[in-house]
């Protein structure tokens, strides 16, 4: 079967000749159609060339989004240390690092709410391209920061673009690939996000080496890390013309079923319906649990490692086992290795979560994931004392904390109909950003509250993180109220009390008369 021709002879030209494929309707990718002849194949063989193209672009958008997030995590403290005002203590830098993170997360949340609604109104692919341009541009502009203020502003504006990507990317994939491949494709999207994080570590390694060799000015490497964040914009140039809207979305547009008017209309439609409102609340609480757990707790494991590694290698230097000038490089290399192991664990955890949710259901998988995150995170913050501890604890922490993120990509699009899918998915995922921002402010408060007066002590960071682990209980208590979506098709528009029907990629033969000539 041709990848570019409709499988239905009725989609042939006006003469009825099945050997002559119908002209491709403008805006419709004809091989973004579920092919029943492939349904018995393994999920990856059910995908056509265009399915793979959509998957790769959406996954790359999220991969580079995660690259940006991780560059910020790795460069945050060095940047604030270089830009700090006079008479600023190390504890002040750590505390303001949490404030900058909070503003980044607020921008992330606002961007998600805005672009989620715009994705339902104007199209997933168009808005996805725009969000990539936004986060690329303002990441690059962070290179020019001269103070804590303009650095914070750049991170907030970067967050606007970063926040829009997830809901748009998962909606695009969910509505494009065949039903039999949806769970695995969305889980793999999240697994590939770890590649972005690993690339960030590789960039950090390279920048550290260039600083050490004198190629880059010492203390200025963080600027070049942000400048590299401009590169995802290149992807837009090569893909925006070929990436089309899902046929199902185009059908809804032709039938006049998409939200119109104010950007608030999709949200009004969500809360007006008992079914969608319930799903919105449940999805938001589940997603917020994971996002707060990662960004208000797990995010600061990098800072804990800095204290652990620095204390360990400084002690070795004092004992004469290493030279004093080797301490910094060993600390940096140790942290980079620990983070790489963390991401390997995350990739394994997300793939296992995808497997578990396909077999046992969404709720059981989340229950296992949140329970593991609670235990592993609290234990790691309490017991991590040496580099060896970090090397085995961080992979477990990555698997436990990031495993449920595969579930967000799979579960959230299954809660909402096509006309509200981007809005609902983005709202649930990005409400967690606001919660995480609040969590970061609260964590900063706890860090100050538990301060010992010793700037080298890791106890304030440990105590605040362990206290924050209570957030995982929120997700566990929410799960009994969550609808189980395993084995069910994506919901579509209709009476909220009616049996759930499928929202599947629409055959081009059926969609063409309604959408021909529409972009």
UniProtKB/TrEMBL annotation:
<feature type="transmembrane region" description="Helical">
    <location>
        <begin position="463"/>
        <end position="482"/>
    </location>
</feature>
<feature type="transmembrane region" description="Helical">
    <location>
        <begin position="95"/>
        <end position="115"/>
    </location>
</feature>
<feature type="domain" description="Major facilitator superfamily (MFS) profile">
    <location>
        <begin position="54"/>
        <end position="486"/>
    </location>
</feature>
<feature type="transmembrane region" description="Helical">
    <location>
        <begin position="390"/>
        <end position="411"/>
    </location>
</feature>
<dbReference type="InterPro" id="IPR036259">
    <property type="entry name" value="MFS_trans_sf"/>
</dbReference>
<dbReference type="InterPro" id="IPR005829">
    <property type="entry name" value="Sugar_transporter_CS"/>
</dbReference>
<protein>
    <submittedName>
        <fullName>Uncharacterized MFS-type transporter</fullName>
    </submittedName>
</protein>
<keyword id="KW-1133">Transmembrane helix</keyword>
<feature type="transmembrane region" description="Helical">
    <location>
        <begin position="47"/>
        <end position="64"/>
    </location>
</feature>
<feature type="transmembrane region" description="Helical">
    <location>
        <begin position="127"/>
        <end position="144"/>
    </location>
</feature>
<feature type="transmembrane region" description="Helical">
    <location>
        <begin position="337"/>
        <end position="353"/>
    </location>
</feature>
<dbReference type="InterPro" id="IPR005828">
    <property type="entry name" value="MFS_sugar_transport-like"/>
</dbReference>
<feature type="region of interest" description="Disordered">
    <location>
        <begin position="1"/>
        <end position="23"/>
    </location>
</feature>
<feature type="region of interest" description="Disordered">
    <location>
        <begin position="487"/>
        <end position="519"/>
    </location>
</feature>
<dbReference type="InterPro" id="IPR020846">
    <property type="entry name" value="MFS_dom"/>
</dbReference>
<keyword id="KW-0812">Transmembrane</keyword>
<feature type="transmembrane region" description="Helical">
    <location>
        <begin position="186"/>
        <end position="207"/>
    </location>
</feature>
<dbReference type="Pfam" id="PF00083">
    <property type="entry name" value="Sugar_tr"/>
</dbReference>
<feature type="transmembrane region" description="Helical">
    <location>
        <begin position="280"/>
        <end position="298"/>
    </location>
</feature>
<dbReference type="GO" id="GO:0046943">
    <property type="term" value="F:carboxylic acid transmembrane transporter activity"/>
</dbReference>
<feature type="transmembrane region" description="Helical">
    <location>
        <begin position="222"/>
        <end position="240"/>
    </location>
</feature>
<feature type="compositionally biased region" description="Low complexity">
    <location>
        <begin position="505"/>
        <end position="519"/>
    </location>
</feature>
<dbReference type="GO" id="GO:0005886">
    <property type="term" value="C:plasma membrane"/>
</dbReference>
<keyword id="KW-0472">Membrane</keyword>
<feature type="transmembrane region" description="Helical">
    <location>
        <begin position="365"/>
        <end position="384"/>
    </location>
</feature>
<feature type="transmembrane region" description="Helical">
    <location>
        <begin position="431"/>
        <end position="451"/>
    </location>
</feature>
<feature type="transmembrane region" description="Helical">
    <location>
        <begin position="156"/>
        <end position="174"/>
    </location>
</feature>
């Amino acid at each position: 079967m041709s990848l570019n021709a409709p499988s239905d002879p009725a989609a042939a030209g006006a003469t009825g000749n099945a050997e002559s494929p119908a002209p491709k309707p403008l805006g419709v990718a004809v091989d973004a159609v579920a092919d029943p002849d492939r349904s018995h194949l393994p999920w990856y063989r059910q995908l056509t060339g265009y399915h793979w193209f959509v998957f790769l672009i959406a996954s790359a958008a999220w991969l580079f989004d995660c690259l940006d997030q991780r560059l910020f995590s790795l460069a945050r403290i060095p940047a604030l240390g270089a830009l700090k005002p006079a008479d600023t203590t190390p504890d002040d830098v750590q505390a303001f690092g949490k404030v900058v993170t909070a503003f980044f997360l607020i921008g992330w949340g606002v961007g998600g709410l805005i672009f989620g609604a715009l994705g339902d109104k104007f199209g997933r692919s168009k808005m996805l391209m725009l969000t990539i341009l936004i986060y690329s541009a303002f990441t690059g502009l962070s290179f020019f920061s001269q103070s804590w203020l303009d650095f914070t502003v750049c991170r907030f504006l970067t967050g606007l673009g970063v926040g829009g990507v997830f809901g748009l990317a998962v909606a695009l994939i969910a509505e494009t690939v065949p039903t039999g491949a949806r769970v695995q494709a969305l889980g793999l999207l999240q697994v590939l996000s770890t590649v972005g994080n690993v690339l960030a570590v590789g960039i950090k390694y390279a920048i550290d080496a260039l600083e050490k060799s004198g190629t880059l000015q010492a203390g200025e490497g963080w600027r070049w890390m942000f400048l590299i964040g401009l590169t995802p914009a290149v992807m837009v140039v090569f893909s925006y013309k070929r990436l089309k809207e899902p046929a199902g979305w185009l059908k809804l547009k032709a039938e006049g079923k998409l939200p119109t008017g104010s950007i608030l209309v999709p949200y009004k439609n969500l809360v007006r319906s008992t079914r969608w409102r319930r799903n919105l609340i449940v999805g938001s609480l589940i997603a917020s649990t994971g996002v707060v757990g990662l960004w208000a707790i797990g995010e600061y494991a990098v800072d804990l490692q800095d204290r652990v590694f620095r204390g360990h290698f400084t002690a070795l230097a004092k004992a004469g086992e290493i030279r004093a000038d080797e301490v910094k490089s060993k600390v940096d290399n140790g942290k980079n290795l620990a983070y790489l192991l963390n991401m390997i664990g995350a990739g394994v955890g997300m793939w296992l979560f995808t497997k578990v949710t396909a077999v046992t259901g969404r709720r059981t998988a989340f229950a296992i994931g949140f329970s593991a995150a609670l235990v592993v995170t609290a234990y790691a913050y309490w017991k991590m004392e040496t580099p060896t501890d970090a090397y085995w604890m961080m992979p477990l922490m990555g698997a436990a904390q990031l495993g449920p993120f595969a579930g967000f990509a799979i579960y959230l699009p299954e809660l909402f109909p096509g006309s509200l899918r981007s809005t609902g998915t983005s709202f649930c995922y990005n409400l967690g950003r606001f919660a995480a921002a609040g969590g970061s402010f609260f964590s900063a408060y706890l860090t100050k509250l538990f301060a010992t007066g010793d700037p080298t002590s890791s106890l304030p960071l440990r105590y605040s993180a362990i206290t924050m682990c209570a957030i995982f209980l929120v997700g566990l208590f929410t799960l009994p109220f969550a609808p189980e979506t395993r084995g069910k098709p994506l919901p579509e528009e209709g009476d909220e009390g009616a049996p759930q029907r499928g929202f599947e990629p629409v055959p081009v033969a059926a969609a063409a008369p309604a959408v021909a000539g529409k972009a």
